[in-house]
Amino acid sequence: MSEPKKLFIKTYGCQMNVYDSERMAEALGGQGYVETKSPDDADMILLNTCHIREKAAEKVYSELGRFKGLKAEKPDLKIGVAGCVAQAEGQEIMRRQPLVDLVVGPQSYHRLPEMEAKTRTGEKALDTDFPEEDKFEKLKNRPKAKRGPTAFLTVQEGCDKFCAFCVVPYTRGAEVSRPADRIIREAQDLVERGVREITLLGQNVNAYHGAGPNGDMTLAGLIWELNKVDGLERIRFTTSHPNDMTDDLIEAHGTCDKLMPYLHLPVQSGSDHILKRMNRSHTAESYLRLIERIRAARPDILMSGDFIVGFPEESDADFQATLDLVDEVQYGYAYSFKYSTRPGTPAAERPQVDPQVADERLQRLQALITRDQRKIQDSMVGRNVHVLFEKPGRQQGQMVGKSEYLHAVHVADADVAVGALREVRITSSGANSLAGELV
Ligand code: SAH
Ligand code: SF4
Ligand code: F3S
After folding, report:
1. Hey, which CATH number is domain 135-378, 3.80.30.20, 1.10.10.10, 3.40.920.10, 1.10.540.10?
2. What pLDDT was estimated at residue 1?
3. How far is the CA of 201 from the centre of ligand 3 (A)?
4. What is the pTM of this model?
5. Would you kindly state where each structural domain of the chain is located, as residue ranges?
6. CB 192 within 8 A of CB 218
7. Nearest CA to ligand 3 atom 1
């Protein structure tokens, strides 16, 4: 038997890219590829890229430059660029970096096997179409390998919201939902392979409206169906838009036992003027009232969010409104970014904030977020939580997992297997994780 070819995939960006990388590895598995952890012994290198901020996109070119030596030593090595930079820049990537053999957009991964074959004949392969088909369905012939206890499952892709700063509607295309029965089958398959927790993914996951047996199904409807899957213990979803938090989804947070008390709900800014300029179509007030309703349904829910500072025209008063909102919500986690100009988006044309001012604002916001994050994490001490154990810890005998609130928890001398779900009493809170003991 000939040696299997080796595939090295490096993933940037969001969880959807993580899911897509797994699917690409499976698609190329059918071509005789096995994954390797090092680019040095690879026959094919794939960078699954992110275009969300300038830094993310530029990283791709510096990474590609580093493969020059490898390619010179090994002329048969094929180098591919997938993901959102591939979609956004297409052929331009091959022009800028001629060692690239293949460019594939996020909607065309099911065509990878043919594209790989094309590169083997010495040609270049490019596909950045948005075909009208469920690419995940085409990628189904996956090996029944054992899996870890947690998995991502993409249920929805694309976005129709067109926030003024964002490339996603251009790189991922229009909003599309997968049919419910396919998602449920995929979930059952994951559970058979050892998965206990599934995170449903979508750029706008709560806009999900996939075909169900009785017409379109909402995300809440889908979650209730998944709640019936035996052996599945936990359901999460990300990322949600405030305008798509429907009543049934809010209610499910209070009544659906497998749905975890954690919600990532980006707001971006606390200033109505900026929100309007961002084309967010919600106000700070409507966001705060929404969180009140979510907390009424599930009082202990841990909220997380995303923020952009230094958006064009952001004044000191606008920024103060963001700080005030953060203070009011008390996020358990929050991610904040300095505004990055994305060519082709409406905000790119507007007067930009002084980068130094933006830097200073980012530091202040992050300090506030860290303070709340720490306070909420510390408040877990003395409480009992449930931990899904994912892997051994750094110390001998230690096991680590996640609580329902997504806090990392480690337990010393824990006699538990990977995949076990156990009650743990939290005894202390560290920099980025909690420690506890089995109850
Ligand atoms: N679909 C999700 C996530 C989009 S990208 C949502 O709507 O929330 C993830 C985060 O990146 C966004 O929430 C936003 O905070 C940030 N982001 C997007 N475009 C950006 C830009 N041009 N500059 C800085 N941050 C950006
Ligand atoms: Fe981007 Fe806005 Fe769509 Fe989120 S909702 S993906 S931030 S355009
Ligand atoms: Fe990045 Fe594309 Fe995800 S731009 S954040 S990889 S959808």
Report:
1. 3.80.30.20
2. 53
3. 12
4. 0.95
5. 5-127, 135-378, 384-438
6. no
7. 50
Residues within a 6 A CB radius of ligand 1: 52-53, 165-166, 168, 203-204, 239, 241, 266, 268, 306, 308, 337, 339-340, 342
For position 138, what pLDDT does the model report? 67
Q: How far is the CA of 65 from the centre of ligand 1 (A)?
A: 27
What was the pLDDT predicted at 214? 87
Q: What is the pLDDT of residue 142?
A: 59
Name the CATH topology of 384-438. OB fold (Dihydrolipoamide Acetyltransferase, E2P) (2.40.50)
Q: What amino acid is encoded at 96 in this protein?
A: R
> What is the per-residue pLDDT for 132?
67
CA–CA separation, 231 and 239 (whole Å)? 25
For the chain, percent helix, then strand, then coil, each to nearest 5? 40, 25, 40
CA 296 distance to own-chain centroid: 27
State whether the beta carbon of 166 lies less than 6 angstroms from ligand 2: yes
159 CB near ligand 2 (under 6 Å): yes
Query: What pLDDT shows up at residue 140?
Result: 63
Q: Closest ligand 1 atom, CA of 203? A: 1
Superfamily of chain region 5-127: Methylthiotransferase, N-terminal domain (3.40.50.12160)
Give the single-character DSSP code of 347. Answer: G
List average pLDDT for each run of 10 residues in the chain, which is 439 residues long. Answer: 87 96 92 94 96 92 94 94 95 95 93 94 91 69 79 96 97 94 96 97 96 93 98 98 98 98 98 98 98 98 98 98 98 97 95 97 98 98 98 94 98 93 97 96
Long-range contacts of 224-231 (CB under 8 A, 24+ apart): 224/252, 224/256, 225/180, 225/184, 226/183, 226/184, 226/187, 226/198, 226/200, 226/258, 227/256, 227/257, 227/258, 227/259, 229/184, 229/187, 229/188, 229/191, 230/191, 231/191, 231/192, 231/196
Residues with CB under 6 Å of ligand 3 are 13-14, 16-17, 50-52, 83-84, 167-168, 171-172, 203
pLDDT number for residue 280: 97
> Which residue among 46, 48, 49, 51 is best mutated to probe the pocket of ligand 3, counting the most ligand atoms within 8 A of its Cβ?
51
